[in-house]
Amino acid sequence: MARVSRIYDLLARVYDTQDHIEIAQGFHAALAPIARARPRGTWVLDLACGTGVLAEKLGRARIPVIGVDSSREMLAIARRRCRAVSDRVRFQRANLATFRVREPCSVASACGDVMNHMLSRAPLVRILRQVRRNLLPGGVLVFEAHNRFAYQHYWSGHDYWMEGPGGDLAMCCEWDERRRLATARMIGYARNGRGWERVETTLVERYHSDGELRSALREAGFAKIRREPWSPWDDQHLEPGIDRNLWTARVPENST
Predict the structure, then answer these.
(1) pTM exceeds 0.90 for this model
(2) Which of 27, 32, 131, 203 is deepest in the core (most CB within 10 A)?
(3) 91: β partners
């Protein structure tokens, strides 16, 4: 996770491109009904909250939320973004494998390929277990994950240019079918006064099959696991396939 944290520290100023904002907005639409139905007095966990786009939308809907992220730079932006809703949005800098919150949480959410950042089963299960420990009995985890179609059709040999208020971001993507690893060489040009500052890093993601995710969730103590095809893009139905899956899983009511 330290590797991922360093990557996002570098990218924080150029991360808020329209594409990334639209992913968070689309995920919020799927999450909101679950968050509104949570037990009174409980909180929503925003895992790997990044620059706080999802947390702000939840806060403006008067849903109390705790954003957890390991990137200091991402959290600095998130806190500025959520000043107007700071009475019901809190942030904590922590590793997802070890974090603890004091507030009673009945919903946990993870948007932005969080589970795909786990490159093997062991760290995936470790993080899922820690999420379960921070949820009340009966609590629900909601997350989205890239499927194989996304990596084959949108990463393999594709380049992207994304613009945002803090700067611009180029992504040069590749997909290794045999190893099930996707890489994105990311080059950002962040505004720095009247000039620009270049940042560059490489992001690596892994495709986890449906069976692997189900097995990891069960090992971590979750039950009532559901998966459905999902995309944040309104026009995804025009493509030959759906690029993501939306997962929900619950902590058993009798969990301790």
Answers:
(1) yes
(2) 131
(3) 67
- The closest of 243, 248, 176 to 205, measured between CA atoms, is 176
DSSP for residue 245: E
Distance of CA 150 to the CA centre of its chain: 16
H-helix or E-strand spanning residue 186: strand 181-192
Which residues lie below 8 Å from residue 79, measured CB to CB, with a gap of 6+?
Answer: 52, 86, 91
Q: How far apart are CA 256 and CA 137, in angstroms?
A: 7
Instruction: Match 């459905």 to its residue by tokens.
Output: 228
Residue range 56-80, pLDDT digits in tens: 999 999 999 999 999 998 999 999 9
Query: Tokens 């070890």 identify what position?
Result: 98
The domains of the chain, with CATH numbers, are 2-146+208-250 (3.40.50.150), 151-205 (2.20.25.110)
Report pLDDT digits (tens) over 148-172: 999 999 999 999 998 888 788 899 9
Q: In sequence order, what are the residues at sequence separation of 6 or more whose Cβ sits closer than 8 angstroms to the Cβ of residue 131? A: 45, 47, 96, 108, 141, 220
Separation between Cα atoms, residue 79 and residue 74, nearest integer Å: 9
According to DSSP, the β-strands at 43-47 and 167-176 are unpaired
How far, CA to CA in Å, does 84 sit from each of 59, 75, 95, 132?
A: 9, 15, 26, 30
Q: At residue 125, what are phi and psi to the nearest 5 degrees?
A: -65, -40
> Looking at this protein, which amino acid is placed at residue 204?
V
